[in-house]
Amino acid sequence: MSELKDNTVKTSETRQRTGQETSELKNKAVKGVIWSALERFSVQGIQFLVMLVMARMLSPKDYGLVGMAAIFIAVSNSLTDSGFSQALIRKQDRTETDKSTVFYFNIVVSFILYLLIYIIAPYVSDFYEMPQLTAVVRVLCVLCVINSFGIVQRTEFMSALDFKSQTKASFVSAVLSGIVGVALAMLGFGVWALVVQQILGAFVNNLILWLLSKWRPILVFSKESFRGLFSFGSKLMASGLIDTLYREIYPIVIGKLFSADSLGHFNRAKHFADFPSQNLTGIMQRVTYPVLCKIQDDDSLRNAYRKFLKMSAFVVFPLMMGLSALSHPLVNVLIGEKWSYCADLLQVICLSMMWYPIHAINLNLLQVKGRSDLFLKLEIIKKILGITILVVSAPWGLLAMCYGRIVSSLLSLFINTYYTGVLLDLGFLKQMKDLLHTLLLGAFMFVALLSLSHFLSNMYVVLLLGAFLGLGIYLGGSVMFKFQELYDIKDLIKKK
User: Fold this and answer.
1) Separation of alpha carbons 280 and 260, rounded Å
2) How do residues 153-178 score in pLDDT, each as one tens digit?
3) Is residue 295 left, alpha or beta, with left meaning phi > 0 and alpha meaning psi from -120 to 50?
């Protein structure tokens, strides 16, 4: 009898501990979402405003030159990290040896990559027939070395769901680099205003992360630690590299087949589309990955996963559809008529980028489950499909390439949800059923805003009235049909 009582007490204590841990994790997740959102939108908001000012003073060609160099920055960042940051976050028992091993590896790889880029820079300018590009590539790619010094610090903050410190670093760096970039653009430095802005921003950001972080590397490099982390991280690195190369194929093809001006228009359109889509997704991903890694029960994981999916779609779908419908008045009002072709591209790109959060959160699950092998397999299949669509659409022009991105995004959605169905019994049809009400209401709003553009000619009136009409339709519909996501977001705001 005494033994039975002891077992009952132990079970009660275990449940109480589990409940406390769950509650603590929820609180951390809520704080993480809020600070991550604050960082993304304060920083990206500043960068967006800086871009609007600089775009009026710089030409599409200036942005095109930076876009041509962007592939080297993206690839070098992917190789420098090599998936180690995700491997560290996933490893619950990470040691000082693990972190120091990653730190030294990141730095060595970044210096090697920069040396290679420095050597091949003249060949890059020959490929694009742009002599000025050699110097731009050599200077801009210093970014990969600068960023390598802050990877572990950033990982430490993410693991602890401490986005407050990252917000401070990002905010200060965005303000300082923005002021310098605008000043240089006003003084007529052209493309170099963009180059200096990016380098200064990265340097200040990483410097502040070091000042705020308590972690410092120790003088040790462990082969055993390296092998353990690399076995998981290498597959994510390969997946990330494939994804990076695929994303940068578009700038390569556009810069080669068309012109630096066309690439400038494409990059600005993509920047407008990325602002709501990638930033909101980034907020959710940065918080959901470490949170989901701590959930072991499949039923709890499935419920949390569905909630993250529905909340992401509830916010991103209407923003992207509204941006697409109002692309022409938005671009003409904000950066001028010389960017009007950018508006044509933006209208189409938004309809492919609206699915970005669904892709990202589905892929997050594979990392949570430790299935980086499946992650890599899916990336290879999707990229082969995407390149095929690119090859078919490119001869028809830049706008056709953008329509091809919509087709590629939808097909990739089928592929990404396959293993979600296998691992959590939450495949494509079940996910679409969860998101259908959000999609239909967003589509209704989209049609209403497009109709408004046809009846009114004044760009300022269309933009202002369209913003209020879109917000009214979507929020009104959400209240009328009692969308659960609306109440979940309201609860999140009330809590903090």
Assistant:
1) 29
2) 887 777 776 677 778 888 899 999 99
3) beta
